[in-house]
Amino acid sequence: MQLDGLDQVRERLAKARKVFVLTGAGISAESGIPTFRGSEGYWKKHPPEQLASPQGFARDPRLVWEWYNYRRRLIAGCEPNAAHRAVAEIEHRVEQFLLCTQNVDGLHRRAGSRNIVEIHGSIWRLRPVDGGAAFEDRTIFDDSQLPPRTADGTLLRPGVVWFGEALPAVEFSRVDVFLATGPVDVAFIIGTSAVFPYIQRWAVIPKHQGAMVVEINPSPSLPEDLVTVCWPLKAGDALPRLLEKEP
């Protein structure tokens, strides 16, 4: 398997002090978690406004929770893959590191990553609909428990960002501040789509700072002028190769 620019990326990473990694659903697909927009993605079978919007939840919270409970059960049976572990290894090798993931599955944490922004939230967090504080809960609910509620009867919702909702301002700011405080040496954009404007935003900033921008995606989507090296592969095939010791 040929990785164009592999030696150059290895050399830059070996000297890097500051690295930014942005991951999307593609990295977890290799662990058996379906993507949303691919040919086998969730939205090919389920309209997003029905299962992942405030309006859909208000209309039928039990239906929405049946789907999220199914996903919790599915994710609980999955393991971090080689790409998750490679991202964690990169964090251990550099002085300054930030991982921003669109994934709500928690696999990056299980792989050992620590400095993480979960920009779309976490499926393992619940939030009272009355505005109460979110909390972690890894329960796989029985059907009789759906939709879940607090002890005082307040309806709970998944702690994720739905269609029509703003990204969490604090987490968004964490990424902006990291990128603004000193130049990034290498930025990896992995398994996501440039359909999200903030994906391009967080590739443009490192690029303008002189960073090497590496896109890893079987279906690349970033504009070519933003990308230094593009590997149109699964992350689990590319990232471990990057971290291998040179012969």
Distance between the termini: 16 Å
Rounded radius of gyration (Å): 19 Å
Secondary-structure-based class equals: alpha/beta
**Record field, number of beta strands:** 9
CATH topology of the largest domain: Rossmann fold
- Overall 3D geometry? elongated
| SSE pattern | HEHHHHHEHEEEEHEHEEH
Q: For the record, what CATH class of the largest domain applies?
A: Alpha Beta
Number of helices: 10
CATH architecture of the largest domain: 3-Layer(aba) Sandwich
Tally of separate domains: 2
Relevant CATH superfamily of the largest domain: TPP-binding domain
User: What integer is the average pLDDT?
Assistant: 93
Q: Quick one: biggest sheet?
A: 6 strands, parallel
Fraction in helix: 25-40%
Strand order of the largest sheet: 3-2-1-7-8-9
Query: Beta-strand level of the residues, as a percent range?
Result: 15-25%
Poorly predicted ranges = none
Outline the structure in words:
By secondary structure, this protein is α/β, with parallel strands linked by helices. The chain folds into two domains: 1-33 and 80-120 and 166-247, Rossmann fold (3-Layer(aba) Sandwich); 41-77 and 123-160, SIR2/SIRT2 'Small Domain' (2-Layer Sandwich). The chain is 37% helix and 17% strand. It has helices at residues 6-15, 25-29, 48-51, 54-59, 61-76, 82-93, 107-111, 169-180, 197-208, 235-243, and strands at residues 18-23, 96-101, 116-118, 121-128, 135-136, 156-160, 186-190, 212-216, 229-231. The chain has a six-stranded parallel sheet with strand order 3-2-1-7-8-9, sandwiched between helices. Strands 5-4-6 form a three-stranded antiparallel sheet, with helices on one face. Helix 6 packs parallel to helix 10. It starts with 5 loop residues before the first helix and ends with a helix. The model has no long low-confidence stretch (mean pLDDT 93).
